[in-house]
Amino acid sequence: MTLTQTISLANQVRQDFPILSQNVHEKPLIYFDSAATSQKPLAVLNALRDYYQQDNANVHRGAHSLSVRATEAYEGARDKVARFVNAASRDEIVFTRNASEAINLVAYSWGLHNLHAGDEIILSVMEHHSNLVPWQMIAQKTGAIIKHVQISEDEDLDFEHFQSLLSNRTKLVALVHVSNTLGCVNPVEQIIPLAHQYGAKVLVDACQSVPHLPIDVQAMDCDWLVASGHKMCAPTGIGFLYGKLEILQEMPPFMGGGEMIQDVFLDHSTYAELPHKFEAGTPAIGEAIALGAAVDYLSNIGMDKIHAYEVELTRYLFAKLADVPKLRLYGPKPNATGDNRAALAAFNVEGLAASDVSTLLDSEGVAIRSGHHCTQPLHRILDVSGSARASLYFYNSTEEIDNFVAALKETIDFFSSMLA
Question: Among 123, 302, 334, 374, fewest CB within 10 Å belongs to which?
């Protein structure tokens, strides 16, 4: 795909996102915070509205028409997600509130029952807190030992260090697919078979990859994969866990309550079949249906097309940022093909606080993030308390990048003049 095609794609989809047409501080909004949460197209907003206006009823429990329609739409969304990531069975898709809940589900259902004192868990120093804290809690309960893959001189995953950590004691490898701070795409296609050679299970945090890359869990051969709906054009409050069927079948329920049962007696209960065994209580029905609409929307555009689009945006973004003075960018530079990193740039400006930079950019209508991005350990390794982050999605354009970089230069000039 050429840059011209990329630009035309941005123009094509822009009208689907009404929130992006507004002004902020009397300036056209430039939304560069999609790594935190994506905006929602009309198709998704309409799906959520239509459920509540036309089909609002509980699922799986009623014989009346509204309940039947709601159940069909809810379970239809599961089918869409399964196809989207190429799961072998719809029963391998479990709806959760978010990726954090999905990781906790694996940690408490599988981890508590399969990890023992001396067993080793391999994480990386770039993990989001959601893929650090649950395993810390499980390690405290089981006596398992956590080891961390370091970053290389290029500030991506140190693959040789990962290899050195593998041993017969390794029981789990849980790694982020795409770093939300460094932007690097970790080589899961190499990591997973190596981990399996040692008999270890592999969990992939795909929150920053499922919205941007074609994902095939069967080809990847991961044991679990988690994602959040709100980063892939769906509402908040919905995410999913993919797990290999045979592994999910062996895992006990994570939470008890309605929906996840088969028969309940006063002194014991039996549990529902997959995937309902892990979906206790009334689910986020409208949000799941809207996730299905988001999957339809992304699929209609084409994930290959979105990925190629963002590769071009990434090249353009980094080429423009190369001209910004006093800028420290984190993570690897885009390679020749441009597919080694995501369309995001975490950075700091020499002598300036990231929060000050983002605040002044907001006054120009530019929305970026500042802080530790839920990667405090990584920022300590980088020897900074936080960073600013501009993260793009397929509805962003090269013109917005130009305006962002111009505003960033003006921001640096403004603070430089104050400090002079």
Answer: 302
